[in-house]
Amino acid sequence: MRSILIILFSFWGTFIYAQNETVKPVFQTGHYAKVNQLIIHSNNEEMVTCGDDGKLIVWNIILGLQRNSILANSSGIRTFHFLTDSSIVTLSNNSEIQLWSYPELTAIPTTIHTEFQVKDLAVINDSTLCLVGRWVHLYYIHSQKVKTLDFISKQLFSTVAYHAGRNEIAVAGPIDNYCTTISLEKPFTFQRYLIGNINKVAYSDSNQLMLASIDGSLIRVQLNPLKKNTFTLKDNHNFVTDMDGAKGHIAAASTNGFAVIINAENQQVLTKIGLNGVALTALDYSSDDKWLAIANEKGTICIYETENYKLNRVLKGASASITAIQLYGQYLFVGYSDGIIRQLDLAENKIVSNSIKLDAFEEQQGINYSILSIDTLVNMQLAFTVLKTDRHHDNRSLLRSVKKIKSVWDLEKNELLLQKAIEDVSLRLAVDQRFKKEIPFQIEQYTTGIDHYSKNGTDYQLHADSLNFSKSKYGKTIAYPKKHEAPITGLRFSDNGQLVVSYSRDGSIRFWDDKGNYLAALYLSGQYGFTYWNPDNYYFSSKETLDKIGFIYKNKLYSFEQFDVFYNRPNIVMKNLPFFSEKNVSDFEKAYYKRLEKLGITQSKLKIAEDLPETDISYLGEYSTKSAVAEFKLSFNDSSAQIASYSYSINGIEIKIPIPLTSNSYACNQTIELASGINQIEFFCTNDKGVNSLIKKQIITCERTFEKPELYVVCIGVSEYKDQNKNLKYARKDAEDISELIQANKQFEVVHQKTILDAAFTKNSLTDLDDFLSKAGINDVAVLYFAGHGILDAKLDYYLGTADMNFNDPSEKGLAFNALEELFEEFDCRNKLMLIDACFSGELDKSHVRIDSAATNKEKGNIQFRSSGNALLDGGGEMGIFELSKLTFIDLTTSRGTNILSSASGIEYAIEGEKWQNGLFTHVLKKGLLDKEADLNGDKLIRIMELQVYLRETVSSMSGGAQNPILRKENNKNNFIIW
To answer: pTM for the complete prediction?
Structure first.
């Protein structure tokens, strides 16, 4: 049975009106600048962050998704606090204070006026704030009155903390050489602690005050009786930026790029955590002590479980701030604040990416390269200008130096070259001035601001806040609507002026027509990832960026799978964009209906309903646990139908449980065996009408002590066949090469190998494969590699070519692929991969192909096709549509977790040749693993999804589009490490 992750409406006629009220799509834009503050909400499931980009963001840390985001203040948000569980107060870099609802992030119309500079704030209660700058002020929100305490800084107080149990505040500044606590009981009592240059204060419990100094010292002051303990970080650049305490531990973030976890009792270092040595700027423990969140100056947030401080997830936006674009015909070049530059062929939707790489030293020093401008394109040489910035070691919001560098992108070789530095005295002076005035760095400060454009007699003017723009022609002005989440960096125009392109700090490119109509937004991410959004919230997305999409339904956040079948509509998005052809729109529309056909549903049933069955889960265990199992309490209810079954999946492996009793409700307990590492567990129920509830998801990390996983790998290669006319040159060598290569894999404790070559591979090998691979446990990895002939019989059933195969009747002695697939699906191992380097290895849409017995093209120069006979013809182009559907849409059908990566589509040949001394697919596979070219995100690990993207793009390019690897079957819930 197929599990269809779709929500059914009984009132399609009212849906179009109701959908925007009931479903709100969310795309994860994240922070594109330094994060200044983060606080985990008291519900321990959500977190709020703010940064120098001026954004305020709510995250769901259980799902790892952004829930909401606003531009709170374009000058940047210095800090924020929860005023109540449902409201937030923010302090901007320009001293503006604003209240916001939580989690909606709508502005609360309460005006807070100050006539003095404010560097930090603390919440005393829901109506009183403590504001510090040169003085210490108590601000009463409702009356808007200010009480200034008789206490002044030598320069500026930069930090304040409040403890309700003691009803006191602690204030300090880096020039004052002391921290002072002030009792808020009348009369006010002041107590000074002569410590040093303090830049951060915080209370850890009712009798402990934590102080961080600019020299890397972390001081704990026991207030009654008075006692001090000092811990000094030993690393270079050890300016402490933030600290917090929980579970008898103290976490201190510093500019050396690590958070040090210290045992508060004996001051021993327990561990260090961080991300690539990039300076950390904020951290916070959850109130239940289960999570520690840290953030860095590049806008990345990491969530750690405190059981043993293992990284659970990374939260970041799809792309950095866009700093420059140019439009040359159908080619759009895009430069980003993190040094990435991309070329997008708008008509073909093809992306090429490159970036200026940082070494470990540059990362730690706070050096960054941004694309400042895109200058000229001549003979496939793109000239552009780079801005190299170096942050101050102590105050990471400020810069020490800036340098412009002329650069070139060789598009044919896809190589970047930084050529020469440009002397710019005014730029150096601007850096010095901003440093003295403590103006936080934003890349836009160093770009040439243009607010007026002219194209074909039409004038375009950016508005004062740069969030939207207007056009004027013949005295008539049209205002374009606000769509960007951050100020617009600039505008570009097509040659005929009919397409207007705006780009922004929010990482988005927005398309408009010349009449003022909004057409779509575009986000580019990773090497090849993209997501288009249209005004009606339909999207066209690569699989790589789907994890950035969420939906809010009835005030709850869900991952993209819940609504993907309805909202992932490429043709709807494309039809209003003039650079997509009518054929493209038509093909993607057919691909969408092909998806529905495969799922077994019709367009008329594709509706979203209010009246769905409901699934509730209760998990009382730890999100980071050493237990081998997780226990859940489940309850299912439906007011209008009976509950027929419930299903759960773990890392994409689904199990359906029939419910024997007929009732509107059902409750039970469910025990699930956990695998090592991250376990993504999902539950939903189905009523007797076949309607599913929305999925409830839990992510649990199993920290039980496991040995490193073992790898079970079978390599099969057949070059010599009983029918010698079918012999191949490199298939056996392919298997031997992969067998040898796998020995270099350091990810596994033990590598168990079985190599089957030539005559040894027969139909009876299936039993041997079962005996060998079934030994893999749930934490292990099982891989089967095959190189040889792939054959289709008269019924278009697929067979792997055994050595003694009868090519006229493959079913006689050939190994049926379906039998092999079913065998794989039954293994307990949850990490399963098949790699098939053979012709026709992709899935077929049998109803739209036919055999062409006249086609016998097997050899072309030094290239041989692994063809064994008849060719396939694509009936009416429908097979191409089937392949397009598989490439475009994630597979939502039930799976037992097997990934099958085929070297070619269902109607394509696999190629081998002397120039590779291998099959092309295997040649690229070896290069991708050994040379780490398949590590697309640079984390020094290669996962299944990265490998399949790399193989497809590289093999397709090297074969001139003749061979296109494809996932015959995919499990997107378990992107496990393969290298």
So the answer is: 0.80
